[in-house]
Amino acid sequence: MNPFQRLGAKISNWWKGEPQDSGGKTTLNSPSFLERIGLKRKGKPTSEVTYFTCLKMLSETLAKMPIKYYQKTDKGIIEAEATDTSKLLSKRPNPFMTPTTFWNTVEINRNHYGNAYVYMRKKFDRKKFGGEIKTVDLWVMQSNCVQIVVDDAGIFAGVGRLWYVYTDPTSGRQYVFSTDEVMHFKTSFSFDGITGLPVQQILRDTVAGASESQAFMNNLYESGLTAKATLEYTGELNEKAKSALVKSFEEFGSGAKNTGKILPVPLGMKLTPLDIKLTDSQFFELKKYNALQIAGAFGVKPNQINDYSKSSYSNSEMQQLSFYVDTELFIIKQYEEEINFKMLPDEDADDGYYYKFNEKVLFRTDSKTQMEYLRNGVGGMIIKPNEARRKLDMEDAEGGDVLLANGSIVPLTMAGAAYLKGESEQENADEPEQPEEETEPDTEQPDTATEPDETDEAEDEDEQEGGE
């Protein structure tokens, strides 16, 4: 390590409060010094497994849903043609992040700090006559580096407006952005409607208690799953002898490395371990109860934190649907409202364009259920065959762009026509057929084949006279 690297590590350790690399010096913020004076720095909330699991579940759920660009037309809703702005949300928000990583980071900041901020870098695209303002890229601002300022004195030339002051954690430089340049996402718990409160602040004692229980388990493992013990002896020992005796017993009996080893006890002394059973203190029941409280505050269901004590296969499916309705639906709606208001021009919004998360990815099922769903959709004149094939990542087939219908399906106005037709046919079948009356041949009628008709003779006479 060269002198510059050693100096950099020394400054870094001093800033973090860690022991220096020269002489083992410590500062007032060093964990070792705080432990010596009876103070202990609390761990981060993310070190608690339930809190971390809830953050992971919510952030990954939002990140897995792609954003679609649609348009409302007279013929219904169609998927609109991609634009430069829509490509930022669906393909690449900035050169360093994919959409999945981008929205995952935004949602983690929102849940952990109570607020998430996205800076929209814009530029004026000049044209021959006028121009337009376009969004170039999107950047996530660390929530702990952003401060919301209300300009009530007109300092930023906007009395009564909100401004976002961002302090770069690397350079320390400050930037001031207006509300038109920042998308602000907050938690549902807010008293003023401007800033949200994080769950870690609301459940500070619960999260801290869960962290302490995990620290207790870690210490128990480090001690080799052995509790404290009492040493009985006859006589008196001075402080120096007591310290030496305790040190020797701890050397042979404490720690995971000494588990299972024989502990030598001097003659006349008796070692009695203090048997502390975790079951008697209901340690695991309390730990489980705290975990359910933290998960409930986030809106996460028990099966999502690996608690299947009261769940079955069908119950887990219903919990997934309940998680979407009770938790994710509010989050998705808030994101869609903010994105459509901040990133969509007014003229595009008037023409029916809008952004929407595709929440259907949350309900992907097995192949059998998916095929039944598509078959019923095609047979019920809801989707076209090619639309069903696209959902299966298959190419279009010839003649698959038309809706198919069963021949027995009729319009609503003709409902029951088949029954009416059947009744009329049944009535005709029930009526008895009248036999035809047989007419006897007239014996007095002259034979037309042998005797000429008087009218024919008259016609022949007329034709002869006319011919003359």
UniProtKB/TrEMBL annotation:
A Pfam family hit: Phage_portal
Biased segments, Acidic residues type: 425-468
InterPro entries: Phage/GTA_portal (IPR006944), Portal_HK97 (IPR006427)
Region (Disordered): 418-468
Protein's recorded name: Phage portal protein
Organism of origin: Blautia segnis
